[in-house]
Amino acid sequence: PTWLDTAIMVEVRLDIASIGGTFQDSYDLIDFYADAGVNVIWLCPIYQRGPGGNGYGNVGPHTVEPALTGTQDMAEGWKVVKEFVDYAHSKGVYILLDIVSWGTMKGAPLVSEHPDWFDGEAWGNAAFNWKNETFREWFIAQAVYNIEYTGADGYRCDCEPFTAGYGVYAEVRRRLNEKGIYPLIMSEEGGERRNAFDCEQDGVLDYKSMTRGQLYQQTQANFFVDGYLSIVQSVKQGRGLGSST
Q1: How many CB atoms lie within 10 A of CB 114?
Q2: Rounded Cα distance, 148 and 151, in Å
Q3: Are 92 and 153 in contact (CB under 8 A)?
Q4: What confidence tier does 238 reach under pLDDT thresholds 50, 70, 90?
Q5: What local confidence, expressed as pLDDT, does residue 242 receive?
């Protein structure tokens, strides 16, 4: 998207960032960030969490968390999201949704309704089976619909590009482009982008020095902002930028 070069982004978890913790309570956050010069809000996952879920653990991208929308009706809930996005746009602020592609909570209805859509475990819960073409099509179609319906401006993609992979998000982009929609699609981890991702959240990491699991256990994280890497040297030499290969 043309606005990527001027994007100033903040990550927001609505249930703790606003007094009241709902979309309806969060319009003043948009006003605040717009006044501060922030023009992109990345929303942490808004999907229905289910028992034990925290958003990154949820019951599927077709749902939205009732505690955030104030309604148990999913259609009405997505309407609340759309109204929030519309207000953000009126203030010159873009909205990124956070999409989770590793799987769902074990107790999610999808697990019992479509057991062939799952294979093994991820993060202690049910892992999506990306080899299942029916599931793959469902996920892609849902990802496209969520952007098309709400008017949101793209995705931050959890655990990507090494879970669903480049092809899934390249197809999401292609279908949205066909509809005249040009989203920002940001992976969590660094990679080659391959016409799927525009940028990455962890673009400055040194995976040759430590794995992601080791990174999480360090008191000093493997980011340039913590002093482990120099952003100047990273740009000059390519160290810590993109894929470890």
Answers
A1: 15
A2: 5
A3: no
A4: confident
A5: 62
Q: What is the mean pLDDT of residues 209-215?
A: 64
Q: What is the C-alpha to C-alpha distance for residues 239 and 245, in angstroms, rounded to an integer?
A: 11
Contact 142, 61 (CB under 8 A): yes
- Side chain identity at residue 173, one-letter code: R
Q: Quick check: helix, strand or coil at residue 3?
A: coil
Residue type, 33: Y
3-state helix, strand, coil in the chain (%, to 5): 40, 20, 45
Concatenate the DSSP letters of all residues of 138-159 into one string. HHHHHHHHHHHHH---EEEEET
Indicate the SS3 state at residue 232.
helix
Q: Which residues does 3 contact at the CB level (< 8 Å), separation at least 6? A: 39, 94, 184
Which helix (H) or strand (E) element contains residue 12? strand 9-12
CA–centroid distance for 85 within its chain: 15
Please answer whether residues 156 and 42 qualify as being in contact, where contact means their C-beta atoms are separated by less than 8 angstroms.
Answer: yes
Specify the pTM.
0.89
Tokens representing residue 126 in the block: 């049910």
